[in-house]
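Recall that a protein's primary structure is simply its ordered list of amino acids. Everything else, from secondary elements to tertiary packing, is in principle encoded there. The following example makes that idea concrete.
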Amino acid sequence: MKSFSVFKFSPDHFAYCLQKCLKAKTLRQGKQVHAVLLLTGFDMNLLSMSSKLVGMYASCGDVSSARKVFDEIPNPNVFSLNWMVLASAFNGWFEQAIGYFSLMQEMGMVGNKFSFPVMLKVCVGLMDLNKGKEVHAVVYKMGFEKDVALGNTLVDMYCKCGSLCYGHRVFDRMHERDVASWTSMICGYCNVGRTDQGAMLFERMKLEGLEPNDFTWNAVIAGYARSGDSNRVYVLLSRMTKEGFVPDLVTWNAIILGFTQSQEAGEAFKFFSAMLVSGVKPNLVTITGLLPACGLIGSVERGREIHGLIFRMGFDINVFVASALIDMYSKCGSVKNARSVFDWTPVNTVASWNAMIGCYGKHGLVDSAVELFDRMQEEGIQATVVTLTSVLSACSHSGSVEKGLEIFRSMKESHGIVVCKEHYGCVVDLLCRSGKMVEAYEFVKSIPINVTESMIGAFFNGCKVHERRDLAKLMADDILKMELKRPGGFVTLSNIYAADGEWEEVEYVRKVMKQRKVLKKPGFSWLD
């Protein structure tokens, strides 16, 4: 057995080398150190060498090796557990990250201030507010709540998990706040459409002597873009420039995407032109923000211009851009161009397959949709919930009842897909469109999950179109017990009763609507 004297290194030297490899993320050198440790028969418990190896492998992204070393540690310490939590979270294995954190607690270790920020990000990844509250309770118990960085992460977790009130409570209790604290809270309000409140915090932040950074400015500007308020966006851009910040590509992309999300395609293109005039060159994020805007206005000419820009700029068409192009051409009515993009994409992932199948479905080309779906399976691409929804929707729009039902019945067995509300909704629509109202009634009654408003709307509309008011009335008692929030189902049911002159029933439906504060918006005309 070789000793350390052969290598003229002490154990401290090896520990130092591993630490350097961890910080520099140099996997090859780290493996060489590990190999020497194994050759010398070094006691891995000495100087917590195993834990340092776990950290080195995890830091370098070799999670498999990190796990192998970790599994051989009889009593892992907080350092190694923190690294396993971090590596799992970084790779999106959130449940596994929670498992390592739970193991830490089971072993009597509550973690340190490095454990909790990662766990809070895991809670965001899972959108698990309750788990986030559990972690917060431990943070409070440990006395770490006063740590600014940890406080910021708590605010961010609560805001992203949909609990602004808890986020603001943590924010208000912070003894010290930095720019990141204010920015997290501002983002929280802007991301849920409460941009005016975010802007008020923005002004309050400046009054308290803290200068917003680029990220803070972008959050407020993007918030107003998402609400479609171009005037406020222009004002903020002007202020931003006057205060020494130059709108960069991130700013322009946030604006373009924001206006696309608010259905303001014209504004998205205006700001795109302003971006080009300012000398900022677009990237693929810009492209994926603009393509849906072309679909919104149905302008295939604009879409082709953006498509041409991709080639002129020398961009590689990745799966996101390919899917966005297919979707854009689909919404603009150009199935041929959509298929051309699909065929020219070097590697089609499930996203582009779904986009193309959805394109065929929207245009009633059910045979092409099913044919592409079959080819997708032949090529070993695993279908997703979205794939099956697109195929079922295509069958519904074309009236292919038998094919649609065949696919629906084979979802679990053939594709491993658990049937969800979207799939049930497609089948209800499929049966109603084809006039099979008795089958639709029996199907709705047999659905094992809560029936959605879209299912009810489809069923009642089917009853109205195919003159099966009797079935609508049979369903009425069940429907009136449901907590419907939209007026569509109620209004259709009321109209069905009115057509048969059953005015007492009409009045009862309206009474239920009034009690539940379900209001029908009044109609309006563009004509004066």
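Residues 1-6, 521-528 have pLDDT under 50 and may be disordered. The radius of gyration is 29 Å.
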